[in-house]
Design a protein that fits this description.
Layout: H1 25-33, E1 35-37, E2 43-45, E3 54-59, H2 66-75, H3 80-86, E4 88-94, H4 101-108, E5 113-116, H5 121-125, H6 147-160, E6 175-179, E7 185-190, H7 200-206
Length: about 220
């Protein structure tokens, strides 16, 4: 089920697409002071998530987005034991009201840490874009639904939810970082569009966490 752990990286890792530069020190300091909110409405500073321990932090578009739902469903498959062995936290941050956290975790089966940045302060500080990029050919390995079916499902969830809302700005894009401990920034990726996700095994490997077999196919292990 799992590949061997990779040594963690301590520098920006370039990729063919979607990989931005490291945030400036001032941007990280500004983001560090911004509050995030947990599922019970408690506010904590962003820096508390990575100050003492390395953390993979995934910012999602919005909780209603079908691509985010399917990506988080795969994040839910990362065993806690893999994270504990590597001493790494796995954190998802959305941009809705905190009231949507528990229903979204229940919907996706996600049991790791989740917070929200309702005012999108951290999104803005790190330069996460709004709107779709021109590279429509990008395809996330974690999204199974096509655009039409996924959009219909998202709209149905909005209409049948307790309150009709989009659970965040529908134009906001997300990103992924590997941070900490302290002010170390190991990796930054800014999504260009809703399908421009970093493959989960890429961030796991870069953080020194064992990878996961997200297919249902058996893996062949060389001996």
């Amino acid at each position: 089920m799992a590949g061997p752990p990779a040594p963690p990286v301590t520098q920006q890792v370039g990729r063919a697409r979607g990989c931005g530069q490291r945030p400036e020190p001032g941007e990280l300091r500004e983001a560090a002071r911004c509050p995030v909110v947990d599922a019970d409405g408690r506010r904590i500073p962003f820096e508390a998530l990575y100050g003492e321990q390395k953390a993979i932090v995934v910012f999602v578009r919005n909780f209603l987005c079908y691509t985010c739902k399917e990506y988080v469903e795969d994040l839910a498959k990362v065993p806690k034991a893999f994270l504990q062995e590597a001493n790494v936290r796995l954190i998802v941050i959305g941009q809705s009201s905190y009231h949507h956290i528990k229903p979204f975790c229940s919907l996706t089966g996600y049991t790791h840490e989740m917070y929200v940045d309702p005012q999108r302060e951290i999104y803005k500080t790190f330069g996460m874009k709004r709107g779709e990029g021109n590279n429509v050919s990008v395809r996330s390995p974690h999204v199974k639904s096509n655009v039409l079916l996924g959009s219909i499902r998202s709209m149905w969830r909005a209409m049948t939810g307790p309150a009709f809302d989009f659970q965040g700005d529908p134009a906001q894009q997300g990103g992924a970082l590997i941070l900490g401990p302290g002010n170390e920034v190991h990796f930054l990726h800014l999504d260009k569009n809703r399908l421009d996700h970093v493959p989960i095994n890429t961030v796991l490997q870069l953080a020194g966490v064992k990878t996961v077999n997200f297919t249902n196919k058996p893996q062949i292990i060389d001996i």
